[in-house]
Write a structure and sequence with these properties.
With 292 residues, the chain is of the alpha/beta class. Helices cover 32% and strands 25% of the residues. The protein has a single domain, classed as Ribokinase (UDP-N-acetylmuramoyl-L-alanine:D-glutamate ligase). The strands form 2 sheets. A 9-stranded mixed β-sheet has the order 5-4-1-8-9-10-11-12-13, with helices on both faces. Strands 3-2-6-7 form a 4-stranded mixed β-sheet. The longest helix is centred in the last third of the chain and has 16 residues. The relative contact order is 0.15. It binds alpha-D-ribofuranose.
Amino acid sequence: MKRILNFGSLNIDYVYAVQHIVRGGETAASHGLQVFPGGKGLNQSIAAARAGLRVFHAGLVGDDGNLLLDTLRADGIDTRFVSAVPGRSGHTIIQVDENAQNAILLYGGANRAVTSEYADTILEHFSAGDILLLQNEISAGPHILRRAAEKGLAVWFNPSPMDDGARAFDLSRVSVFLLNEIEGEQLTGTAEPGAMLDRMTERYPQAAVVLTLGAAGAWYAQGQTRVFCPAEKVDPVDTTAAGDTFTGYFLRGMLDGRTPEEALRLAAKAAAIAVSRPGASPSIPHLQEVES
Ligand code: RIB
């Protein structure tokens, strides 16, 4: 089985239930607080592991990181490349409103202490044939992408959250892009999914593109190939980590040798289950549940 190195964020998510997302200048009461392990990196590792893949997670936690390490280990994820640094782990303040919409405020903490030198000591253990899964929530991301590609790893890149830092990544070295509609628009300048996919495949002919559109389904594109998969119908409770779940399961589907259409369908089912439950990583289903 291929080895997956997910170099990614680990966050403690403070999830507040609110009537509506708080506006600038407004003070509003929440009617519930739950604390979950999260972070795009951790969620994607858990999704890939629950989908049955062999995952090594790399990253940094702070003094309060035991919850995050325990969470990864409970799913059989190899944590030998997760280290602790003084200070706080990454955390988020997440508001979830009555329509299951969320707003996320991110504090990078230990995730922003990752250096190129630290990353190199980890990448030494991986080689051609392995896969790097990468998001944009840790520091040194552009270096990690470049170094991994130089070593022959296939790079699966989810540029989330899209910020100014995302421009520093060498996208010509990406093997698979994992985008939502906002990221797709920011990368291509168009909001129309067909045009988005055309621009991405023209600019990055070496890469496949996965574009998720929430309730409007998901697309796969490579060269001239276009595959669409509708979303599963579900009553959403909390959409946090839906994209992360999709990523882990799509990866599993493709590594299994399924067609892109089958892999999209597997991922769409898993994401639908995730949005029907609260929290980030706790909402991610196991393969048995997705396939049943
Ligand atoms: O993708 C969802 C994740 O984004 C949350 O778990 C939160 O930690 C933020 O990183």
